[in-house]
């Protein structure tokens, strides 16, 4: 099935936004030059034995964009389209996201180029462990801290942690739990991490609704992607009285004018791996999905899903980017002309890295915060970031994406100004 809009180099798109924000903030030329490229780009090839006895070679990546604010931080993606260009863009966005939120981490991203759906649980475990081993000391709790992303989950993180711990010194085992975040609670994960990205998206939507004096009770949403981010956003929206009336994933799109039961659909996807075959709802095309009239649109799948063609069709009041980079510049220009506001990815989906930070702090201090504590802190951070971004956008008369980038760049520029360039 079609997975995207037009051809775009994701890394060039992200660099373009950076250039625009750099002009606005008067970013010093040397800082601009440093931030334009990742610090490190690691590519590894590693063999894994398949269940049938044959051996396959896999290609894995870890991109470390910047660590001036703290250790590199970002997800690990398992997807057949993973590429150096995509991961460079995603790693760069992590630097901006952490700087915008005030989370003391830098930006990183990695992944393995393969389709995890084609592999057994045992094969996934062996792929994850060999990949972690191949990365070796290029990751670490004070250096570079992976997290879940597309195609990976809490189980993947526990395998990574276990492999890292077991290949390191015995006396450091406990400290090394913080090498990854997004783990199961049992393995040292944080309360609230699994739904944190969706929760952050919903906090942003609530802030928008309050300012726009829009009543979310009885509102409708369309959600692209029903994995971690899409399903948790739909579920949390349903608690506010918002019905998800259309959704879709890599297998196709479905519509239900009564609204999907987000709980049941999430359970169905957990068991079956996709929304395909879900009995309540009618199949629609990708084009029909983008034409579905609704109040909110939450893209929560891949980058580059909304180009000009999709942006013309969308009939919504607000877009909150759960995914990273779902709208390409051509799509963004159409949405701007049509006056449809967009809460940009580095703000809207930053709840995930924020709670990852809480997990890391809890691991390092041997603490366990209760769910209320995590939620209280997350709400505070999201609200503050949202307000700062929208205030800046209004003051400088720029869109929210450029405002978010500019705020991130200002904070990075201050760090470079204070620290200077070594030697
Ligand atoms: P996931 O693997 O749990 O879910 C991905 C969803 O996208 C699935 O429903 C999948 O079927 C769908 N999808 C894949 N290819 C598609 C296609 N061609 N067309 C339509 N749908 C397709 O991944 P996730 O963790 O929910 O991540 C989704 C997005 O959110 C990614 O862009 C990711 O970078 C971003 N994100 C995730 C987190 C997190 O905490 N997991 C945090 C911030 C941002």
Question: How would you sum up this structure, described in words?
Answer:
With 423 residues, the chain is α/β, with parallel strands linked by helices. Among the domains are: 38-176, Rossmann fold (3-Layer(aba) Sandwich); 196-348, NAD(P)-binding Rossmann-like Domain (Rossmann fold, 3-Layer(aba) Sandwich). 46% of the residues lie in helices and 17% in strands. It has helices at 10-25, 29-35, 84-101, 121-135, 154-166, 196-212, 228-238, 262-272, 286-291, 308-313, 329-338, 345-348, 351-365, 371-396, 400-419, and strands spanning 40-49, 55-66, 72-79, 107-113, 144-148, 220-224, 243-249, 252-255, 282-284, 296-299, 318-320, 342-343. The strands form two sheets. A seven-stranded mixed beta sheet has the order 9-8-7-6-10-11-12. The protein has a five-stranded mixed beta sheet with strand order 1-2-4-3-5. The longest helix is centred in the C-terminal third of the chain and has 26 residues, at 371-396. The site of nicotinamide-adenine-dinucleotide (NAD) has 25 residues, from α7 and β7.
What's the quick description here?
Helix content is 46%, strand content 17%.
Task: Map the helices and strands.
Elements: H1 10-25, H2 29-35, E1 40-49, E2 55-66, E3 72-79, H3 84-101, E4 107-113, H4 121-135, E5 144-148, H5 154-166, H6 196-212, E6 220-224, H7 228-238, E7 243-249, E8 252-255, H8 262-272, E9 282-284, H9 286-291, E10 296-299, H10 308-313, E11 318-320, H11 329-338, E12 342-343, H12 345-348, H13 351-365, H14 371-396, H15 400-419
Parallel strand pairs: 3-4, 3-5, 6-7, 6-10, 10-11, 11-12
Antiparallel strand pairs: 1-2, 2-4, 7-8, 8-9
Helix pairs in contact: 1-3, 1-15, 3-15, 4-5, 6-7, 6-13, 6-14, 7-8, 13-14, 14-15
The chain binds nicotinamide-adenine-dinucleotide (NAD).
Nicotinamide-adenine-dinucleotide (NAD) binds next to helix 7 and strand 7.
